[in-house]
Specification:
Length: 114
């Protein structure tokens, strides 16, 4: 999983959802977070044709969240891990493009911590 701090990230409101986890009788858990979904049929389809189960991890998404110290983070599953998890074959080019996208987002949103 990639996890990087960020001071802010631009988003398309149509593709982002606010998430607050609430347990009945206990109220909200943790701080507010935002799930950002990246759908791309041309990129996703070759993976799904190779291994249908990869659909559980697609479209790609990131979770932008704050920790208890109010530090903002961006978390996501590495595309290479997703492909390996599902035994995706012959989709290296698409997986590389997906990984490049998340690397660019991480660099834009904030500096990765070592």
């Amino acid at each position: 999983m990639g996890e990087y701090p960020t001071s802010g990230i631009e988003r398309d409101p149509a593709r982002a959802t606010d998430e607050t986890i609430v347990i009945p009788g206990h109220g909200p858990i943790g701080n507010k977070s935002q799930l950002i979904i990246f759908g791309n049929t041309r990129g996703d389809m070759p993976l799904m044709q190779s291994a249908q189960t990869v659909g559980i991890d697609l479209p790609l998404k990131t979770l932008v969240w704050q920790d208890a110290a109010a530090k903002t983070w961006i978390s996501y599953n590495q595309p290479e891990w997703i492909a390996q998890r599902h035994g995706v074959a012959n989709a290296e080019e698409n997986v590389t493009k997906m990984a490049d996208l998340f690397n660019a987002i991480s660099r834009t949103a904030g500096d990765p911590e070592p």
